[in-house]
Amino acid sequence: MGSVQARMEAALSRLLPAPQVAPAKLHEAMRYAALEGGKRVRPLLAFAAGEVTGASRERLEIAGAAVELIHAYSLVHDDMPCMDDDVLRRGKPTVHVEYDQATALLVGDALQSLAFQLISEHELSDDPARQLEMVRTLALAAGSRGMAGGQQIDLDSTGKALNLPELEFMHIHKTGALIRAAVLLGFSCGESHSDTDKARLDRYAKAVGLAFQVVDDVLDSDASTATLGKTAGKDAKQGKPTYVSAIGLPAARRLADELRQEAQAAIAELGTRATRLAELADFIVLRKF
Amino acid sequence: MGSVQARMEAALSRLLPAPQVAPAKLHEAMRYAALEGGKRVRPLLAFAAGEVTGASRERLEIAGAAVELIHAYSLVHDDMPCMDDDVLRRGKPTVHVEYDQATALLVGDALQSLAFQLISEHELSDDPARQLEMVRTLALAAGSRGMAGGQQIDLDSTGKALNLPELEFMHIHKTGALIRAAVLLGFSCGESHSDTDKARLDRYAKAVGLAFQVVDDVLDSDASTATLGKTAGKDAKQGKPTYVSAIGLPAARRLADELRQEAQAAIAELGTRATRLAELADFIVLRKF
Q: Is the pTM of this model over 0.90?
């Protein structure tokens, strides 16, 4: 896992515009937002899914970087005062604190554009039509019926008590859509495709995506700010519904483990090609930070 | 021109998510931002460029919509308090005034994603590899070395006196990049390509893009808010460098006309295939609002 993370850091550093290229301030801030931080869960998932279809590392770097840039842009915008108003991210001041709000807005906008540039300008499939489908997968995952839509549902839910299906609907959009895209893009970087395998990975991705959020809520409710690298207990303070507030801590922990088992079951038939995916499902649920 | 505008309005209405689709507030606000407004200059340019290569209307609608959605998103974000802080756009309250800042942020983000969804999910070329190149053209035009970068340069220039080359550098990014993309995408929607013709359109687009901004500055300096449908005289008040502040009103008017002639010269060899492009260059420079 560490090797994929190091590889992604190098890839992102290479793929982001150099800090001295004009407009230098924007490029420096984009690099600040996207480099040296995060667990790189989405690229890890892309790489693991790529093992199922024998995808090359070069392609997986690009697909992983595109998904990670969408994720990074969403964090920059979510942290802004008009959204979650947070000052700390990955142990560093958030972009609008380190720079200013206008720059943070543009950093997010430009990171999103860069994701689509990368996924269209590098060869990710022998079949350009398949690659166009990959662009569409990323766009749908990022947009109003994916991540951005989930963020809107999240905003509108603040102060409300959501039940389990409502929470699930929110998170399938907010975090699940992009995690699903990471898995599907990694899978599509390989040339050996089967619709059955793709359906298996889709089921895996749905379970892992939800598990990821449940575990986030559990960690947020009982970890410290120093451990998380972001402000702890924030969701509860802001009156945002979480799995912990909806069903309590013990049930949230049980749910996370059930989702982990669901993810494992989805890929069981894939054998050793899915070893990394299996490891990641465990990592996502059993992580401590 | 009116028929293209009506066609684009219908296309955008069809291509934007319906207002009742969840999250309804976000989709309603996206439609508010993108429909019923604007001169649709970029789609007009895409349609006119498509006449050079015999592109179908169906394809041009998609290409025009994708470019227009990038433009619409940039207006929503530019109007926000942390950027230009404007309350009026196209004669209506800006999105963050009509809704709220968080929604405006997400509207812009989701409109950008939708642009890339449209340009990847509809067939715009017989050759998928060429269409991938179109995605890349749009991403580059929107990103940090295009429109978003131009916006950053604009922000950093506030209160400074720029000379003509500096102003030109800013506007080639801020408005020129997306206008160029509109022309190139419209051109690419056809199947009869020639590198010579493409170079002609590129030269045309560069001149028209700059002319557009010079005329904007001229209009901003002497039109009324009611005529413009947005706050007039804003740039001067905010200490932003404009062509009028850099070289004065008469010289700015002369420059606009020189650029109009440059645009006409670039496409002169194309004959009747470029009639619409020629009309548009005149329209852009001679418009009163």
A: yes
| Residues A56, A58, A60: CA angle, nearest 5 degrees | 70
**Are A33 and A112 in contact, with CB atoms under 8 Å apart?**
no
Find all residues with CB under 8 Å of A272, minimum gap 6, and list them. none
Cβ atoms of B177 and B154 closer than 8 Å:
no
Residues of A whose CB is below 8 A from B79 = none
Beta bridge partners of A88: A93
Q: Indicate which CATH number applies to the domain containing A80.
A: 1.10.600.10
DSSP A17: P
Residue B275 has pLDDT above 90, yes or no: yes
Using a 10 angstrom Cβ sphere, with 0-12 exposed, 13-18 middle and 19 or more buried, the burial of residue B233 is middle
Range of the domain at A51: 2-286
- The predicted pLDDT at position A241 comes to 87
- Interfacial A residues in 154-193 facing B (CB < 8 Å): 155-156
- Separation in Å, CA of B198 to nearest CA in chain A: 20
Task: Give B24 to chain A, closest Cα distance, Å.
Answer: 9
For residues A34 and A95, give the distance between their C-alpha atoms in angstroms, rounded to a whole number: 10
CB neighbours of residue B272 within 10 Å: 8
Distant-in-sequence contacts of B86-90, Cβ < 8 A, 24+ apart: B86/B230, B86/B231, B86/B234, B87/B231, B88/B225, B88/B229, B88/B230, B88/B231, B89/B37, B89/B229, B89/B230, B90/B36, B90/B37, B90/B38, B90/B229, B90/B230
* Exposure b/e, B61-75, CB count within 10 A at least 16 = b: bbbbbbbbbbbbbbb
* CB half-sphere exposure, B196, CA atoms < 13 A: 3
Cα A251 from chain centre? 24
| Strand B92-93 relative to strand A88-89, pairing | unpaired
Average pLDDT, chain A: 93
Residues 6+ apart with CB under 8 A from B120: A132, A133, A135, A136, A139, B131, B135
Q: How many CB atoms lie within 10 A of CB A2?
A: 6
- Number of folded domains in chain A? 1
Mean pLDDT of A241-251: 91
